[in-house]
Structure formats: C-alpha cells, structure tokens
Amino acid sequence: MHGRRIGSVRSRRTLVAILLIAATVIAASFAGAASGRSSAKTISVAVVANGQMQDIARLTPSLFTKKSGIKVKYTILDEGKLRQVTTRDVGSGGKAFDAVMIGPYEAPQFGTAGLLKDLAPLAKADKTYNYNDLIPAVRNALSAKGHMYAAPFYGESSFLMYRKDILAKNGVKMPLHPTWQQVAAAARKIKTSSMAGICLRGKPGWGDLGAAFTTVLNTFGGTWWSAKPNGQPDKAQVDQPAFKTALDFYASLVQDAGEKDAANSSYNECLTQYQASKVAMWYDATVAAGFLEASDSPVKGKNGFAFAPVNKTKSSGWLWTWALAIPKSSKNPSDAWKYIAWATGPQYLKAAGSRVKGGWAAIPPGTRFSTYRIPQYKKAAKAFAGITLAAMKAAPITNPGTTKRPGLPGVQYVGIPQFQDVGNRCTQLFSAVIAGSMKSSAAISQCQQIASQAIK
Amino acid sequence: MTDSEQRRGGKLGVGERRSVVAGLGVLAWIVGLLWIFPVAWTVLTSFKTEEDASAQTFHQGLGFGRYSDISHATAGTLSLQTAFMNSLVVVVVSTLFVLALAIPAAYALAIRPIHKWRDVLFFFISTKFLPIVASIFPIYVYAQKWNLLGTRSVLVILYIAINLPLAVWMMRSFFMEVPRELIEAAEIDGTNLFNQLRSVILPIVAPGIAATALLCVIFAWNEYFYALQLNFANGSTMPQWVITNVSTRGNFLAKLSAASVIACLPVVLAGWAAQKRMIRGLSMGALK
Amino acid sequence: MNATAADVALPKGKAGDPFSSAWRRRLPLLPALLYLVAITQLPFVVSIYYSFTNLKDKTQSLIPEPTKFVGIDNYRQIFSDSFFRQAVWTSVKMTVLAVLLSLIIGTLFAILLDRKFLGQGVIRTLLITPFLLMPVVAALIWKQQMFSSLFGVLNKVLGFLGFNSIAFISDHPTGSIVTVLVWQWTPFMMLIILAGLQSQPSDVLEAANVDGASALGIFRQLTLPHLRRYLELGALLGSIYIVQAFDAIDVMTGGGPGSTNVPYYVYQESIGGGFRYGAASAYAIVVVIFAIIIATFALRVLSSLFRDEERA
Fold first, then answer.
1. ipTM of this predicted complex?
2. Domain limits at B25?
3. What is the CATH number that goes with domain A158-319+390-454?
4. pTM
5. Is A49 near chain B, with CB under 8 Å?
6. What topology is assigned to C81-311 in CATH?
7. Nearest to A287 by CA among A250, A324, A322
C-alpha cells in the first residue's frame, strides 16, 4: 500500500503512454474505415458469382483500370445474396454501389419505379459502344417504354445439352425439337449407377429451380397467376391440375433419373457434374455450352444440343441476361458508365477471347451480333452458337404458355415484384418434393396460400 | 499444487482403480478424436488438390498449393489481407471498448453496488434475448443515412453492443471475488475509484478479464450476420471472405478448406492458449 | 469464509442530490447502460413505429407508394400466418433439442475428462475446437465435407458399408442444423460442467467413497445436485445464443422446408427477400415481446443462481 506513492508517477506515465497509443490505433483504424465508399476514381460494382463475371473481375485491372484510371471494387455474391443486397440497396436509395448486376426481371421494374438511370441516351451517343449491335430481344428485355435501364453483359436462353457418345451408345436419338416425354424416356433409359440420366435444377430460389421449373410449367399448360383484363395478377393458379402435373413430372424425373443431391443443385453444381461425366444430359442455360466446349473442358467435342423440350407449346426456352445498371443514387454515374461501356462493349469481347481460362468459347455470349462474327469465336463455338441465337430468338417472352398471365414479357418468371418472394418460398417447398421429403399436394397447397396472400 | 487442482483431475478420481482410469482414458481419446474428425478432415483436405478433394482420394499428394491460391486475390475483389485487417481492427477495437465499459459497470454492480443492481443485470442479459434480425432494418436505414455502410465503424459499434451484456455479467462475478477487507481498506485510505481499480481490484480479476476478453474476441471474430448485411467490398470481414471461396466454377472444396483453416486459426490458437483461463474464468466467475 | 463485496450494505443516499452516494455509485454504470440502451432499444423503438406503417422497399411497387399508417393491420395478419406458427414451432424444436443434447453430451464428456490420464490436456484442447470455429465455417464443413452426397465423408463410409447414400440436408434439414449446433456447443457445455465438477470438494467425495457408496450413487446424490447450478447456467447461456441461430440455416438450408426458425423467418420477411419492412417490423415486435416473456422466465432461473451465491 505504501508502494503506491512511489510508483504512482511512473505508472501514471505508463498509463498515459498506453492511452495515447490506443488512441492513435483507434484513430488510424477509423480513418481507414472509409473503405468501400467511392471516391473520384473508384467505383463499387456488385456482380453475380458466375464464371464470366469472375473472368472480367480478373481482367479489369489490366484492361480497364490501366487505360481509364478508374479502380473497380467488386462485390461478388451468389445469385440469391446478390439480389437481396442490390434490391435493398437500390430500393432504399443507397449509395453503396455505382453499378449493380440485374436481369430482365428487375430492370423494367426498378426502371419504371424510377430507381435506375436511363442508359439509352448514353449508349446511343457512344459510337464505339454500337448501340444497334445489341441483340434486340435482349435489349428490349432490359427496357421499358424505350428507356434501356441496364446494359447486357451476357444473354442466354435455355436448351438441352447431352452427351452424343452416351446417347449413341444406348441407341437413343435426340431430335432437334424434342418433347419432354421424349427427354424423360431417354433419361430413364440411359441412366446408370455412376451416371445420372439428366441434370435438372433442384436448388430453391426463383432464379434456380424456379427458372427451370417455370419453363416446364408453362409448356405443360400451367401458370403461377391468372391475369385480369388490365394485366394485373388475378388469382393464384398453383392449385390447378396443370401445375400439379408439371410439378409431379419434374420431381419424378429428377428422382428417377436425375443427379445426386438434386435439392442442392443449380447451374454451377450441374455444370461441375456434367463436366465430371456424372450426368449424361442437362437442361439449363445456353451459356453453359461455352464452358462445356471450352478449351480446358473434359467433355469438349462430345456434346449435342437441342432446343428446350416442349409439351403443349411450340417453344419453351427462357430468356435471361445479366446486365449492369446504374442506380440513380450512385455518386459516380459518369465513371460507372465508362465502366459499363467497357464491360458490355464489343472491345472487351474481342480482348477476352485470348485471355480467359476457357478460351474463345467461354467469352460472354448472347448480347451482340458482332460476337458471332468474330472468326475465332465462330470456330470455337461452332457447335452451339447457331442454336443459341435461334433459341434466344424463339424464346416466347410475350406468350410463354397456353393461358393469359400477368407479368409479361418474361418466360421463366412473372414480372411482378411479389414473384421474387413467392418464387423463393414456393421453390423451397418444391425442392423438398424433389428431395422426396414432402408430398407434392402438400407443397402445392402451401404454395397456393403464399401466392394468394402475396397479391392481396 | 493449489487446492483446486488437488481436488479433481490432479490425481485419480475418487474411488477409481488404475485400470478403470486407463480404460476411460482410452475412451476419452476415441471420443475426442471422433468429435474433432470433421475439423481434422477439413485441414487434411486443405492440403489436397481439387480433384482429390472432391473424390476424397489422395492420388496427387499433399501440399500448400491451395493456401497460395487463396492468398492471391484479383485486385478489386476482396483479398485475404484486407479481410484479415478488417476483422483484426474491428475485433480489437470493439473488445477494448467492451472492457472499458464493462469494468466500471461491474464495479457499480459488485464492489459498491447500486440499489437496483439485480434489475440492471437482468436488463443487460435481456438485451441478448432480442433477436438481432428484429432490429436489422432500422439499423440498416440509419447506417445508410450516416454513411456507415461498408465501414468498419458500424461493425465496431454493433459488436460492442453484442458483447457488452456477457462481459458485464462475467466481470461482475469476478469482481464479487475481491475480498471485502481489501476494498474497505482502500476506502479507508481514501483512494478514488480509479486507483482502487488499478492497485487492488484489477490484479485480482486479471484472469477474469482475460477470459472475458477471449469470449468477446471469439464472438466478434466469428460474427456473420451484421457483417453480411452492412458490409461489402473492401469493408468485409473474415467470415465474408470465407464465403467468397465457395466458388462457382468447378471444384472448390480444397480451397474452401484452406480458407476455413486460415479464417479460424487465430481464434482457435487463442482459445487453445487460454483454455485454462477460460475454465477458471467460467468456474470462478459465473458461479462460485 | 471471506466476506466479499456482496455483503456490503446498500446505501441510503438522498435521491436527486447529484453528489449523493447513490448517484456516485451509479456513475460507473452509466456509460455501459446508456450505450446498450442506445444501440439495442432505439432500433426497437423505430421498429415499433415502422410496424404501424406499410413501409416497403421501393422496388416492390412500380408506382411509388407513399408510406402510410395502417394501424394494427400488420399485427392482425400475424395471427393468421401459419408459416409464422411453423417458424415458432421450429424455433422451439431446434432450441430445445440443441440445448438438451449439447448439455447431456457435454456433461458426459466432462465426466470423462475429469480425471488425469495421458494426454488429458490434448484431448480437452481438441474438444473445445468446434466451439471456437466460425459458425459459417462449421456449417460449411458439415454441409460440404460431411453431409454432401457428392463429396461427403459420411456417404462415402455408408457406401463402403454397402448402404445407399443419404441426402442428409435435403431429407433432414432441421436435424442437420441441430447436429451442427450440438457439435459446436457441446464443448461450451463441457467446459462449464467441467468447472462444476472440479469445484467439488474432494474430501466429501472421498468420505462417501470410504463409506462404501458406489460411483453411480456418489454421482447421483452428491455430484448432480452440486452441478445443478452449472447445468442451469449452461442451459441459459446456450439457449440465449442457440435461439438466435442464423448462420447455419442460411448456409445449409436457406430456410428449406421446416428449418426456418423465427429469426430466419423475420429476416426473410424483411431484408431477406420479402422487403415488407412494415410487416416485418410487426413480426419483430411480436418476437421481442415473446423474447421478453421468455427472458423473464429464464431470469428467474438466474435469480435462483444469485440466491445460491448469496447464501454461499
């Protein structure tokens, strides 16, 4: 106790020293805490975690930042998380991102609600951007009332990919325009214990299982909602017979001849499995063909392609594009446009071919006519380029099914704001049906409830 | 050996024969190894190549390749170094603040308790029952208003609130251990609160502070929800960085395993080093 | 026994006098208290305000909808929401199962570890590791390394033994999540119980042993009552954290059938995809009210712990 006096001066000094150091550290850390916000020459971009996006993220420093001096900070998220983040940010007028990646589901809606910048004037004014080179179907899908709200990065439809060798071995012929019954029969015939007949998406999410299933639903004569004369959603149609038929067909096909762990499989998982020769057929996005025929693909050259299988309609392939938009609240719209013009312009496509991992076959497809005139691309993508373009053109975006429905144009989604949540929650249930842990009738009645409540 | 060590664990359990102890020891080993198997397997996978990892084989041998893969990120995407720095700063700063707030609070609840100390303590604990998802939207709105999104500050602010109740509770229990005579003696001497803390109380509760700090560090380092909702790009923390290694192209299991190992290593090492403190803290602190 | 701080007499300062003893006692508490009130209660108050409106994300309506008051509409809707009831039931199931299982297994481990054997320290160190991992990492490990039908170790072992592979996560979503929670929290319980076991005075136990009591008898009559407070503490702390489980659900099942607990459901209603902020705030308030009720109940347990403390 008496030592207190003697040591008090020294210990007080130590204490002051410690406090000073702590204060400096704290101040320095908070000063550095302003990371992630845009300054004059840095923009923040949110993209989805697909192969082409990761390619461009890798090439941005050398191909874009060097020339323009604009640094790009990427936030790469999987589809579900990306949508949450971008929808919330754009919808609340946030300044977190200068460019966000959205699709034809969001673009017209967000744009009409006044949340996105109109890119058409910027695009048209930029000669090198070549606005008229954009494929009209894709461009229009991202526009509303003549305003283009997002610039397409890649475009796709859906079709059937299959192993020519496996089908030939089993004596199965796949027509160019197959029906779902033909495809199902083929899948059940060619499946073995080590190789599933077909890979179909089963992962919950309106953009995952929802996309593939909705195209099946459409061509089986079903729909999510009926439409009022003015185009607004009228009644939920989940409890209709066509819906159950489609769901039962899809689920039983996956259970009988589909991939392992289907309830966790979406585009990426099926791609991995197909390349590992664990599945013989795959119904999914046309953009996958680029990876299947890439220079480093183990199944290169073995693939055949057919249009999306149909039942009661003439065509059923979807139309989707991942596109870059500028939220109105962005603080650097001009830098953001410079970036978007580069990322979705023809020069990047030409430069990417020799630089990306999969070679020319793996560059972002489906946005411009000029892509399909590049000689190296024509050669590398010979097997699928033609059918890709034809599929995109044939996508029945104004009349995807057999009945009137709201939320048009759109094939694999319903273009109303409520669909995102309804689709996500219902596909949770459908995924359980596929996994065999829920009866389709139970899933349907719950989904009908969700769909009805959502439009009240 | 101190009395507590002599009580249990320091010699044979009461009434147990040597053979029983040996047998139970073997059982403990088996149980321990089985329980830790998922972690061990992940560490092993982190040294494999991707092909081996997805096929669960060993054909291509082991090496550090995946670790170097994930340490190099493309400029503009979240790198390990950035995420690590973010996590470090957020954890250290928030823990320091938590201790700075909790120690005086514990003093007011234990040494010279206020009248309503029970109610206050209950209030602190009850805030842990509020689900954080319930308040995320208002927090998001105001974080956006005040330009805190994507910064480390917003996480520091929230992590302090997350850890404060537990810290106050634990610190109070440690303070209760301080012998009354010492405090009374200090009071008679006329020492103020600060010096009382410094010379009398802190030396006694130092192990308790360490245990509390460790728990705060664990919970802050591992926190995912707030980080995911409020941070992005270059403000992201380690949990977010791990998720970015769930790649979409091809196999990623080995890289993900390596990322998991790196992300968890600091806290695991700290926990290992301080586990005796944690046990002592939990036993001494929360209950007598 | 030493008198400790708990024995100090409470003051009778004059209320209102800023220099009275009572206020001087309160002062050190104020920073922590005010901080917590500001950060945890203010958003709560804002939520109350939102819950009476129809606030939605701006992307949810094509024509900008002005936010208006809707009274208690949001609350009325909760009572007819069968999915919310499902989520509540799932929360109860998950929490009770996870806490009970980790407590039981943790106690068994603690008993096992409560003796000196070769490598005791090593095993204890290994056993606490799952608790130190990030919950997202733990969930990913189980999802990709253990449960996966494609790469999973468990299914590979099943294959060796001649069984079909089980799609753990798809078929048993809640069970998978409970597994991960138990795996992570058992070490925590083990530490608490171990502390309890090691705080037992060995002379009493030796006396009982000398008297001829069996090991089981000693455990039941002497150890278990002594452990009661530690078990309660473990259950309380574990419940607090496990009822809020979010990371595992997000990573493993995304809320898949029957595995959505209340926090995840509220999240889905608000920023997780529903973007119905007004309605979600009403859910949040209801959940908070329940939480307060449960907290009051749980804190009665706490107070019995305090009472024991004071008695000792």
1. 0.85
2. 1-37
3. 3.40.190.10
4. 0.86
5. yes
6. MetI-like fold (1.10.3720)
7. A322
